[in-house]
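Here's what a typical entry looks like (EF-hand domain-containing protein):
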Amino acid sequence: MALAEKDELLHVATSEGDYTAVERLLVQGAYADAEDEHGETCLYLASELGQYEMVRSLIKFGADVERTNANHDRNTALHVACLNGHVDIATYLIDSGAQVDAKNAQLHTPLHLACLHGRKVLANILIGRGAEIHSIDMDGQRPIDLMNVSHIPEDIERNIGRCVVSDRQLRHLFDSCDVNENGSISRREMHRLYDEYEQFGVVRTKWEIDETITKVTLRKDDRVTFQEFSILMLQLSKA
């Protein structure tokens, strides 16, 4: 099978959400950064479609997390992950080296797009990772200005101008817990931290906390990783 044919099949498998085929084609030598006729890479497509495991595999096989697509909008994978509300993918892309303040053709950063589409959790994650809240697009608008356009509730709008928990603070809080040998903490530790951490402004029952943990981790086991913990801290501190 010619390499060009493998690249084409890789795009088809990605667009169809066929993780097994994507993994197999990558092992066989398909180019992780090959572009389709629209100038879009597989990493871009997987990030847009919310295919987390596929994103991980593509990056493992060398996909460039900072690459912009070759069509008119010039978005990165992080742009489309934020636009579509894929928290886990956006977080993984940032952890893998994606530029948090990358600009597309309209000079929109991922934070602009998160705000424009009301992605509250993502906006907080981006700010916590150092996103520039005063970045200006082609129309002279900041992320908070796009929030106003989308009629986002005032409590979210205020949060753009408020100090959020930094990565260093999150790591300190996580390490202060009883961390298991596998690098995770238990739900019980999450409950304890919620009771003790003064920045939580909302009273929640243990059942509500467990429901949030299950929603974020997509599991019902007794394990919360640091990446999941970071997202949980943002969600549990908001009304």
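The first helix runs from residue 3 to 15.

More examples are in the samples folder.
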